[in-house]
Specification:
Layout (H helix, E strand, L loop, with lengths): L6 H34 L3 H20 L2 H15 L3 H36 L4 H14 L3 H16 L4 H24 L4 H30 L7 H34 L2 H37 L3 H28 L1 H6 L5 H16 L1 H16 L3 H25 L4 H28 L9
Helix pairs in contact: 1-2, 1-7, 1-8, 1-10, 1-11, 2-5, 3-4, 3-6, 3-9, 3-10, 4-5, 4-6, 4-8, 4-9, 5-8, 6-8, 7-8, 9-10, 9-15, 9-16, 10-11, 10-13, 10-14, 10-16, 11-13, 11-14, 13-16, 14-16, 15-16
Protein name: Putative MATE family efflux protein
Main location: membrane
Keywords: Cell membrane, Membrane, Transmembrane, Transmembrane helix, Transport
């Protein structure tokens, strides 16, 4: 019977979804790396402008990640209930919402680009280059958001391979377009923005075509449904609140690092980059949990849902421990790659040691996040996000006020973020998972 499924079978399902998802997750940061490498050779003002512009662009796209999460949960649940037509129909509605948001945000970003750049403190040539990149990349926003929504549909259908291949192809196309437009066509940083926009639009078109083909084969309609789009927006709203709370915590951490001096801030940039890379790896398990949990709850199979919860938590905590050991033990050697300043090296080593020791907690948290998103428990996650932010804020501000500057201050900051903040998230999500309120079955 389904509920007596052996652990090895669940493990195969987790890995079958998580491994391709990891590849697709890693492909997205490659866009930024390629842009940085190409633009960096144009000059320091251009690279500084790209830093400002990419921060703004990634923030806009990051706040819309609910398009992927909410769609994954909705599609997986309906597919598990045996209604493939309704599953694809909800996915199509989510993609219409993504397209509408993409067009609106693209227009807003084009108009507001100079203001947004100014808010981050850029001026002169740096501000000009940042504005140019934003305006040339803005037309790609509909593609970026369609990639999120269509990837969510395919994950809900338990297909993480197609997004992997499209992401890999998009990364290659982005690299080629950047070189051709920046240097071959002589467009400078504007060519980098245009290349990214074209690559993202192409990725969105390909993934949309894949979903449309599946919808037609299943007999699902393609026209936008006002009720369905509103339902997608309503389901995504709590996840937007959750994402905003996470972003605010990250911004607060940067604010505290800035107050601890240049050495701590420089070290924090490296430590947070390593943490982010590890988070992508752990998020692959969260994506697998989203799809599998939504599918099993849709089918009304609570026993297997609990089994998936246990196994993904074991995988997440174990992966966090392994990655954490590498991060904690390799901090000093990693620091040599980034700076020759001995003080910054010490700061990086200490920060990575603290982050690495606490990374198993992050593995636990990311998986539980995926489980509850897959269960459609967005409202609880929104409330929990606000609660954990309120718990973290006074601790972070205390670090800014009383911690010493330099390496020791950075260690205290990461103890606050990877310790207090992540433990607060672990507590709120863990208590929820121990109960049964999130185990809502059916569609």
């Amino acid at each position: 019977m389904e509920q007596s499924r052996p652990t090895s079978g669940v493990d195969r399902q987790i890995l079958a979804l998580a491994v391709p998802a990891l590849g697709a997750l890693v492909a997205e940061p490659l866009f930024v790396l390629v842009d940085s490498a190409v633009v960096g050779h144009l000059g320091t003002p251009q690279l500084a402008g790209l830093s400002i512009a990419s921060t703004i662009l990634l923030t806009v796209v990051g706040l819309c990640v609910f398009l992927a999460y909410a769609t994954t949960a909705a599609v997986a649940r309906r597919l598990g209930a045996g209604d493939a037509v309704a599953a694809l129909r909800s996915g199509i509605d989510g993609m219409w919402l993504a397209a509408a948001l993409g067009v609106g945000l693209a227009a807003l970003l084009w108009v507001a680009a100079p203001w947004a750049v100014g808010v981050l403190g850029a001026d002169g040539a740096v501000a000009d280059h940042a504005t140019s990149y934003l305006r040339w990349s803005a037309p790609g926003l509909p593609g970026m958001l369609l990639v999120l929504a269509s990837t969510g549909v395919l994950r809900g259908l338990q297909d993480t391979r197609t997004p992997l291949w499209v992401a890999a192809g998009g990364a290659v196309a982005n690299a080629v377009l950047n070189v051709v437009l920046v240097y071959g066509a002589g467009m400078g940083i504007a060519g980098s923005g245009l290349g990214t926009a074209v690559a993202q639009l192409a990725m969105g078109a390909i993934l949309t075509a894949v979903v449309v083909r599946g919808a037609r084969a299943a007999g699902a309609g393609l026209r936008p449904s006002t009720g369905g789009i509103w339902s997608s927006a309503r389901a995504g709203a709590p996840l937007l609140v959750r994402t905003v709370s996470l972003r605010l915590a990250i911004l607060l951490t940067v604010f505290v690092a800035t107050g601890l001096g240049a050495v701590a801030l420089a070290g924090h940039q490296v430590v947070t980059s390593v943490w982010g890379l590890a988070a992508f790896a752990l998020d692959a398990l969260a994506i697998a949990a989203q799809a599998l949990i939504g599918h099993r709850l849709g089918a009304g199979d609570v026993d297997t849902t609990r089994q998936i919860l246990r196994r993904t938590l074991q995988w997440g905590t174990g992966a966090g421990a392994i990655l954490g050991a590498v991060v904690a033990g390799g901090g000093w050697w990693f620091a040599l790659l980034f700076t020759s300043d001995p003080d910054v090296r010490v700061a990086i080593a200490l920060g990575m040691a603290v982050a690495g020791l606490l990374m198993p907690v992050a593995g636990w948290v990311f998986v539980l996040d995926g489980v509850l998103i897959g269960a459609g428990d967005g409202r609880y996650l929104a409330v929990a996000g606000v609660v954990t932010l309120l718990a973290y804020a006074p601790v972070a501000l205390a670090v800014r006020a009383w911690a010493p500057s330099g390496a020791a201050g950075l260690a205290w900051l990461w103890l606050a973020f990877a310790g207090v903040f992540m433990l607060a998230r672990a507590l709120t999500t863990g208590l929820r998972a121990r109960g049964s309120a999130w185990l809502s079955t059916g569609t």
